[in-house]
Amino acid sequence: MTLTTILCPLDFSAASVALVAYAAALAVGTGAELRLLYVQEPAMPLAVGVEAELSVHRAAAQAAGANRVSTNMLKGEAAPEIVAEARRQHADLIVIGAHGQTGLSRFLMGNTAEVVVRTAPCPTLLVRE
Fold first, then answer.
1. Which of 4, 44, 79, 108 has its CA 20 to 30 A from that of 29?
2. Is 29 inside any structural domain?
3. Domain span at 25
4. Spatial CB neighbours of 85, under 8 Å, sequence gap ≥ 6
């Protein structure tokens, strides 16, 4: 499988650092472009410092050897926006964090990663913390 574009959605949780390192390693190994994405959801308080946070993750990916790294921020519901961005960018792979919610909490709260896996136009790699 040839990878040219890897999409890596971030939520800026503690697990995001490891997620970016994993996605960067895949980008380095395949020569793919790494696209870091943050989606500001309407129900969430306005995120402050998103550009700075994305810059920190971009720098970390570049320090890991990924030489083609871009960032983007969108507004809307996370899962549909991630899937739409994967389509727009013709992503070959989505690398997304899985927080391990199960049972009732996943049913009540939803699970972005689960929706992305079910609806993505390309393979999706779930990375656990």
1. 79
2. yes
3. 5-107+120-127
4. 7, 35, 37, 72, 74, 91
Beta strands in 12-56 (DSSP E): 33-40
Residues 20-67 pLDDT 10s: 999 999 999 999 999 999 999 887 777 678 899 999 999 999 999 999
Assess if residue 112 is contained within a domain. Answer: no
pLDDT tens digits, residue range 56-65? 999 999 999 9
Q: How many structural domains does the chain have?
A: 1
Instruction: Determine, yes or no, domain membership for 115.
Output: no
Backbone angles phi, psi at 33, to 5 degrees: -80, 140
User: What's the CA gap between 108 and 129, in Å, rounded?
Assistant: 22
92 part of a folded domain: yes
Q: What is the pTM of this model?
A: 0.89
105 class by beta-carbon count within 10 Å (0-12 exposed, 13-18 middle, 19+ buried):
exposed
Residue 22: give its domain's CATH number: 3.40.50.620
